[in-house]
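Dissemination and training. As part of the outreach component of the grant, students in the summer workshop were shown how a complex can be specified as a set of sequence lines and then modelled as a single object. The example used during the hands-on session is reproduced here so that future cohorts can follow it. Participants entered these lines:
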Amino acid sequence: MAFNIYDFTSFNQSIDKLLYDNLPPFWALIIEMTLIGVAFLLFYALVGLFLVYAERKVCAFIQNRVGPNRVGPYGIFQTFADFIKLLMKEIIHIRKADQFLFNLAPFIVIIASFMAIAAIPFGLGLHAIDFNIGVFYVMAVSSLGVIGILLAGWSSNNKYSLIGAMRSGAQIVSYELSVGMSLVTIVILAGTMQLSEIVEAQRNGWFIFTGHIPAIIAFLIFIIAGTAETNRGPFDLAEAESELTAGFHTEYSGIKFAFFFLAEYMNMFIVASIAATVFLGGWMPLHLGPLLTDLLGNWSLKFNTGVDFIPPFFWYMGKTLLVIFLMMWFKWTFPRLRIDQLLKLEWKYLLPINLFNIILMALIVLMGWHF
Amino acid sequence: MNAIIEYLKELFGGIKTLLTGMKVTGYYFVHPKEITTQQYPENRKTLKMFDRFKGEVSMPHDENNQHKCTACSICEINCPNGSIEVISRQVEKEDGKKKKELDTYIYKLSMCTFCGICIKVCPQDAIVFSQGFEHAVYNKEKLIKTLNKPGSSLKEKVKE
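and obtained this result:
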C-alpha cells in the first residue's frame, strides 16, 4: 500500500517509543494513559458543547424559529455561556437522599460513556483501545449507563425520579436486544468483531451498500433502538417533562445535572459513531467497489484516489454528524411513545424483524450474494 | 394468514405516517424563509402587528376631532376589573333639550387584562384595540390615560 499521510500509527509509535526509552515502564504507561484521558476529556467537552448548540439550532429551524442568536455570531457561544452558568449554580443538598449513591450516579453515567468512546476508531491509528471484541465491548459498556440512571432515580427519594428510572430500565433492557441483534447482523457479514477490521473490511464499499437489503434493515433498526437507548425523544419517557417533571434527574442541580446532560449528548454521539463505523464505513472514504470499477473503468480509480485526500477524521465526523442529525430529526418530529407502545414496538416489531433479518443475512453471506 | 397481512399493513402504514411527519419537518428545516420569529428590538421600525392584535384600548377620532362615544357607560359596567371610567356632563341644546355628553373617558391600562369585552359591548363601536404594545413607563400614573382628545365632540349620526 502507498504511504498514507493520514496514518497516525507511526506518530503514535514514536511517542510511545520516546516515553518508554526515557522512563520506567510504569510511569510511561501512566503518562500515556493521562495523555489519552486529557485528549478525550477535551474532545468530550467540545463535542458536548457543539451538540447542544446543534440540537438547539436544528430544533429551532424545524419549529420555524431562529434559535440561539445573541451570544456571538449565530449564537455559537450560547452553550459556553450556559455551561459557565451551570458550573456556578449552587448544588442543592437533598436531605433525605441516599448521599453516597446520589453522588455516585452521575459519575457512573459519564464513566460508562467515557469507556465506550475509548473503543471507537476515529481514524487510522486514532484509536485508544482496539479490542478483538470491540463491538461486544461497546455494547456491554454503553449499557452500563442505565445503572447510573437507576441509582439516580432510587437515591433521589422522589417518586418522579423513581418512575423515570424504572421506565428507563425497562426501555434499555428491551432495546439493548435490538441494538445487539442489528450489530450481530453486520458482524455476520464482516466476520469479525474488531472495530478496526470492520472498518478495513469496508474499504471497497460500506457495509450498508455491500450488505444491501439486510444491512439497510439492520441500520434502520439500529438507529431506532439506539435512539431509544440514549433516552432521547420520541423515547424520552425516562424524563418525560410533561409527566415526571424531569424524570431521574429531577433532584440534581448544578454540575451534577450538567453531567447527566452531557452524558445524554455523548451517548447520542457514541451511538451515532457506532452506526457510522459499523454501517457507514467509519473513517473509510467512500470508495467505489470492484463492480462499479468494472463499469466505470478509469474514472472510478480517479474518484477513489480523490476521496482519499479528505482526511479520515473528517469522513468519520461527517458520517457521525449525519446520523446525529437523523436522530435530532426524529426527536423533533415524532410525539413521545406511551410505555406500552414503546414495549410493543420493540417486542412485536423490531425483535421479530431483527431475528428474520439475521437469518436473511446469514443466508446471503452463505450463498455469497453480497457485493 | 390474515393476521400476517394485518401485521404487515400496520407496519408499513406506521412507516408511511412517520415519513409523512419527517417530510413536513424536513421541509421546514431546509426552508429558513418559513421562520416566523420576529427579531423584535432590531425590526422595531418595520414591525407591523396583525389586524386582530389586542394592544391597548383606544378611541378613534376623525379629522374633525369627533368620536363616536355617547357616554352610555355600558363599557364601564361590563369591564370586569374596573379599568374604565366614563365621566359625562349634561349640556343644553339650542332647542332647550338636555343631553348627556362625554366629558372624559378614563382608561386605566395598569388594570386592563385585554379581555376585549368593552369593545364587544360598545353599541357605537366607539372604542377599538390599537396596535401599540410597548406599555413600559417609569411612572404608574402614566398608565391612566384619557382616551378622548381635548375639545373633541360627538360625531352626529347621519340620517339615511
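Chain B touches chain A through 15 residues (CB under 8 Å). Students were then asked to discuss how this feature might be tested experimentally.
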